[in-house]
């Protein structure tokens, strides 16, 4: 069977746009002589649609569009993800489904069996589980159709499975000769290799070929990397779609292919591509054409500026330098060099006089109080007001520049440097920020070396350094990764790190700054556990593992 795989970039809720993408891909598949053309999970409405599903009118529009797509088919099969309804006495009656269409009709529907309810997934909130799975005879093959999570429960791969049911094994037991999975699998670094290994075990064990199609694009805080996979019955990866781009390719199950080995690039390449796509799609899908960044002379804002240039184009990126009495001459010169290297527009707005006026106005209220972090935060908030004013006036997309290490411990100012539409690198640890900067400079110096080499500083007080308040970033990031991503607790982390006091300080900072993160911009996800929808902790709570 010749299968056309269409990994498309949808717009959640824009049903007509997504429908046109499906019909266009179907037409291309027919031209390429395909027997079956397949599209990702919930391709018709976009993934994840979240509470749009609870709108009756929305579901009705998706169901009507499903019928309209089917009416445009001929003898060539078209398989795509959509929403269907089958109301019973119990449950929502709403299903995440794969619709197989040909000859002008919906000929077969397979509902999703395994409904995920962890990390960034909350499908149990909306969907019912399929009561059973069925094999469908089509053009000489017995198709075993599954949807995303259904394929992530293979007993031969997982030591511990999340679900009792294994819908794919049931399809195999029912005599499937070809497995097809339509997916919407969010990206994080390492995920693609994990997919390949899991699917390789599954196909080799069952001695069946597999066509696995995935979506691509940025959807608010989630990035989908595409990279649709096809494996032969020996477990060899033989076809792969483009990374972070739309793609169409053909998998012929009767043809022999040379196995493919390398499917994931290095950290710098992968994460930069992910962040650029996430920013680009967020802006385009919300109607923004130009980006604004507050450029401090530090490595974080330099990295975000570079990413913005890749996403918007250099002609659409504007930066603002806002020096205070504590800004070093080097930071200003480094920023100016970066501006020249990237070929972007800029302006300088000094905040010295504004800061002095704030202090003068507040001095009666502050009478008798020593200077502390309050005065530092005033500077950050002045800059935040300036950036928001420019964003409002000119329609700029304001990019937030804080990294994951800072977000974790609260080393950021609410209504100041946390202002912005999207937190571009807030899932990138500070040590990884340096790794990305060095990768960018691997061929030619784009980010000035001075920015990379100098000690990080917020420059909000004389001779200030980040390490005045925080452990060295190498140590801090190791603790944070153990706590945030590996879910280790105080005692275990202390045994690994060897310094209980430092661990206790860091964990306390993470816990008590939940209130800041709840008010932060959405965070582009590139690790297993990002701040935001996939990590939900109460702000007001009394639990501590350090007692």
Name the CATH class of the largest domain.
Answer: Alpha Beta
- The stretches of 5 or more residues where confidence is low (pLDDT under 50) are none
Architecture per CATH nomenclature, i.e. the level-2 architecture of the largest domain: 4-Layer Sandwich
Structural class: alpha/beta
CATH topology of the largest domain: Nitrilase/N-carbamoyl-D-aminoacid amidohydrolase
The percent range for strand residues is: 15-25%
**Count of distinct strands:** 19
Report strand order across the widest sheet. 5-4-3-2-1-14
Give the termini separation. Answer: 62 Å
Please, what is the average pLDDT? Answer: 94
Gyration radius from CA atoms, angstroms = 26 Å
Percent of residues in helices: 25-40%
Main beta-sheet strand count, sense and barrel state: 6 strands, mixed
The CATH superfamily name of the largest domain is: Carbon-nitrogen hydrolase
């Amino acid at each position: 069977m010749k299968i056309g795989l269409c990994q498309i970039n949808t717009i959640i809720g824009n049903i007509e746009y997504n429908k046109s993408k499906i019909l266009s891909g179907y037409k291309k598949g027919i031209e390429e002589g395909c027997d079956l053309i397949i599209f990702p999970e919930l391709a018709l409405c976009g993934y994840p649609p979240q509470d749009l599903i609870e709108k009756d009118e929305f579901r009705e529009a998706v169901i009507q569009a499903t019928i309209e797509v089917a009416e445009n088919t001929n003898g060539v099969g078209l398989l795509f993800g959509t929403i269907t309804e089958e109301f019973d006495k119990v449950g929502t009656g709403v299903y995440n489904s794969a619709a197989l269409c040909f000859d002008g009709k919906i000929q077969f529907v397979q509902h999703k069996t395994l409904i995920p309810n962890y990390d960034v997934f909350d499908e149990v909130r909306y969907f019912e589980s399929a009561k059973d799975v069925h094999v469908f005879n089509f053009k000489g093959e017995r198709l075993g159709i599954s949807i995303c999570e259904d394929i992530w429960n293979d007993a031969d791969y997982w030591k511990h499975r999340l679900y009792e049911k294994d819908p794919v094994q049931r399809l195999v037991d029912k005599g499937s000769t070809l497995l097809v999975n339509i997916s919407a699998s969010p990206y994080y670094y390492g995920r693609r290799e994990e997919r390949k290994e899991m699917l390789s075990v599954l196909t080799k064990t069952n001695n069946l070929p597999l066509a696995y199609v995935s979506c691509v694009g940025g959807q608010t805080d989630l990035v989908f990397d595409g990279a649709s996979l096809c494996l032969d019955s020996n477990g060899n990866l033989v076809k792969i779609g483009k990374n972070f781009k739309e793609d169409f390719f053909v998998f012929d199950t009767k043809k022999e292919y040379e196995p493919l080995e390398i499917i994931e690039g290095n950290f710098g390449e992968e994460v930069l591509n992910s962040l650029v796509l996430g920013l680009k799609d967020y802006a385009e899908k919300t109607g923004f054409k130009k980006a604004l960044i507050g450029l401090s002379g530090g490595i974080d804002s330099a990295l975000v500026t570079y990413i913005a240039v890749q996403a918007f184009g250099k002609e659409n990126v504007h930066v603002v330098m806002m020096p205070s009495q504590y800004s070093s001459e080097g930071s200003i010169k480094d920023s100016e060099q970066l501006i020249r290297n990237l070929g972007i527009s800029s302006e300088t707005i000094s905040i010295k006089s504004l800061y002095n006026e704030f202090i003068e106005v507040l001095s009666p209220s502050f009478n008798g109080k020593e200077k502390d972090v309050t005065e530092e935060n005033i500077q950050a908030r002045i800059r935040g007001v300036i950036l928001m004013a420019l964003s409002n006036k000119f329609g700029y997309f304001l990019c937030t520049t804080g990294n994951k290490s800072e977000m974790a411990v609260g080393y950021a100012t609410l209504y100041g440097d946390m202002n912005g539409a999207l937190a571009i690198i807030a899932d990138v640890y500070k040590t990884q920020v340096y790794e990305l900067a060095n990768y960018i400079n691997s061929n030619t110096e784009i980010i000035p070396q001075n920015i990379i080499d100098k000690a990080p500083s917020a420059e909000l007080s004389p001779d200030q350094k980040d390490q005045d308040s925080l452990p060295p970033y190498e140590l801090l990031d190791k603790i944070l990764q153990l706590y945030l991503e590996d879910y280790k607790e105080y005692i275990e982390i202390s045994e690994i790190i060897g310094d209980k006091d430092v661990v206790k300080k860091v964990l306390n900072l993470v816990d008590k700054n939940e209130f800041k993160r709840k008010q932060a911009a959405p965070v582009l996800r590139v690790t297993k556990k990002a701040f935001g929808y996939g990590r939900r902790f109460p702000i007001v709570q009394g639990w501590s593992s350090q007692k």
